[in-house]
Amino acid sequence: MIRKSFYGNYTSVEAGVNCLSVEIGKLKLWFSYDEVIAFRFEDIKKVLTDEEISHQIKMRITSLSYDPKFFICENEIIESMKGLIGRHLNMLNEDHTIRIDRAKFIDLLNRVLEYCNLSQDL
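Above: the chain's sequence. Below: its structure in C-alpha cell form.
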C-alpha cells in the first residue's frame, strides 16, 4: 500500500505541499520541499550494523522522545532554506539530540531503500 499525506499545521494547500510524507509498506518518508528529511522503517534492525544497534540503545536511554525506528537529519541541506527546513524538522521532532548528520542519514536511507528494492537518486 502506498499513501501520501501532509504534516504540520498549515492552513493553505500551497504551504502544505512542502510538508509531504509518503508511506510505502513499512517505510515512511517525510519531505521538506524536495528533500527527504526523515524516515521511519519498521524492519530497521535488518539494515543496521551491530554498532548502530548499540547506538540506538544508548539513544533510547538518553532521550525520552527517541523512537529507534525513526531517523531525522540535521539541518544541513540548503543554506538559504535552513529556517524553513528547520521548521519542518521541528514539526516532526524538536529534540535536536536525536538528529543525525546528513551524510550518515543518506547512507542509512540508501541501505533501507536498497533493502526494500527501491532505487533512489540522492
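The mean pLDDT is 83.
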